[in-house]
Amino acid sequence: MKINLKYGDTYKELNLPDKNLLKVLELEKVPGLSDVNQATIQALQNPIKSKRLKELAKDKKTAVIVVSDFTRGTPYKRPGHNLLVPIIEELNAGGIKNENITFLVGTGAHRPHTDKENRDNFGNEIVDNFKVLSHECDKDLVSFGKLSTGNELLVNKLIKDSDLVVMTGLITTHYFGGYSGGRKGILPGVAGRESIRANHAMVCRTGVGIAQLKDNPINLEMEEAASKTGVDFLVNVVINDKKEIVSIVAGDLKDAFFTGVEACNKLYKVKIDHLADAVIASAGGYPKDVNLYQTMKTMNNARQVVKEGGTIVMLTESREGLGSDAFDKWLSRASSLDELLSTKEKDIVVGGHTAVINSKILKRNDVYVVSSMKKDFLEQRFFKYAESLEDALDKIKSKHGDDFKAYVMPQGGLIYPCLEKEQSRGL
Questions:
Q1: Could you tell me the CA-to-CA distances from 317 to 168, 212, 228, 286 in Å, in that order?
Q2: CA–CA separation, 241 vs 267, rounded Å?
Q3: Do residues 15 and 228 touch, judged by C-beta distance below 8 A?
Q4: Are 272 and 419 in contact (CB under 8 A)?
Q5: Separation between Cα atoms, residue 177 and residue 200, nearest integer Å
Q6: Coil/strand/helix, residue 44
Q7: CB 100 within 8 A of CB 92
Q8: DSSP code for 370
Q9: By three-state DSSP, how is residue 284 classified?
């Protein structure tokens, strides 16, 4: 069977014999909304467990709209729609003028956006007419005090200085936060480095995992952080495998988010009845495969469907390499995976947390990477190198035999695969 898998802005062809293919794991085929602008307006007019945004804006002078950075893939601007314009119109209707609306890019601990990235993601009409600022996790922070965990909550001062705080973003599953979107816009989105570090350092605690919220200590701290900062309104979307918006939720931070999580599960959850010898997964192309750091979500999703000792093949262009200096240092300087896994929580830094949690998978499975990165570079960081998909298949055959069984995941960064016997762990 021939399958085209996304790689950066292009494709690579996988030629997998039918006898080796268990199934191509894909999202349910749900078409994108025919009129995103109108659907956004309807969501804003009928908010979930909240007053309308224009009512919340009355008697307020300033507003900050938190937007996701480009690596998250939130489709703010596409031909025929701009998700942000109806939000602005609601704020205007409530009396807040454009010059008093600021867009804050929730970069977390990532680098700031370039002007081109702002224009590509939010549109010229936003960049040319509004203040668009990138959060920087070491600058312009204020304290909101201690969280129940004992960690101090440091957040971008714009959140405290603004009369109204609106959160936007994309809801997908997340391998240690449970789900992206919602409360995650504050922590890590616009939080200080130490607050992000302390939160992400809990990656090895009980309850942390994909699609887990209720008993997940990382999620619970994120929820508390968003509540403590006083987020006024949420607008989140769910997308299909073509990156088209299929669902828009708006309203109360918690209730609208949970509604979006239900829509996410309905679309992304794919049940399997047994584990495979191997899985071949594309991160879904740019920007999901912009670097290896972002592709870790794909690796964690793929891990759900492969046997212990099985093989994971990841297709990721990774034009920016690893994508995190800390991630790189922790992997390259460690003498073994066991050394990483034995790291004490207090010593885990931002970026290092990704090395620690993913060491579990690198120890459990052979992980081959098909990318623009060099063999020595990958192997010095505990990954295995494959020159091409054909080379990766040869390596799978060598380990598992000619009759190996494999799943293929064309959208590894989106899909939520799980065994049939698993029960929902979400809310």
A1: 28, 29, 39, 8
A2: 10
A3: no
A4: yes
A5: 9
A6: helix
A7: no
A8: E
A9: coil
Which residues share a beta bridge with 64?
102, 165
Instruction: Put residue 230 in one of left, alpha, beta given phi > 0 → left and psi -120 to 50 → alpha.
Output: left
Radius of gyration of the chain, Cα coordinates, nearest whole angstrom: 21
Q: What is the pLDDT of residue 423?
A: 44
226-265: buried (b, 16+ CB within 10 Å) or exposed (e) per residue?
Answer: bebbebbbbbbbbbbbebebbbbbbbbbbebbbbbbbbbb
Task: Quickly list H helices, 108-162.
Answer: 115-122, 124-129, 157-161
Tokens read off for 26: 């894909």
372: amino acid identity, one letter: S
- The domains located in the chain, with CATH, are 2-27+273-419 (3.90.226.30), 36-267 (3.40.50.11440)
Strand partners, 263: none
C-alpha 126/C-alpha 163 separation (Å) is: 20
Nearest C-alpha neighbor of 227 from the set 167, 161, 297, 290? 167
pLDDT averages per 10-residue partition of the chain, 427 residues: 96 97 92 96 98 97 96 90 97 98 95 95 96 97 97 98 98 94 97 97 94 96 97 97 94 98 94 95 94 94 96 97 93 95 93 93 97 97 98 98 97 87 48
Q: List beta partners, residue 165.
A: 64
**Which SS3 state, helix, strand or coil, does residue 394 take?**
helix
Give SS3 for 321. coil
State the DSSP H helix or E strand holding residue 416, giving kind and residue range, or none if neither. strand 416-419
Q: How many CB atoms lie within 10 A of CB 153?
A: 26
Angle between helices 193-200 and 217-229 (to 10 degrees): 150
Residue 121 to residues 49, 82, 118, 135, 306, Cα–Cα distance (Å): 29, 10, 5, 16, 35
pLDDT value at residue 421: 65
- Residue 338 structure tokens: 């066991």
Query: 191 phi and psi, to 5 degrees?
Result: -95, 165
Question: Whole-angstrom Cα distance, residue 299 to residue 320?
Answer: 18
Which run of H or E residues covers position 13? strand 10-15
**Smallest Cα–Cα separation from 266: which of 339, 173, 383?**
173
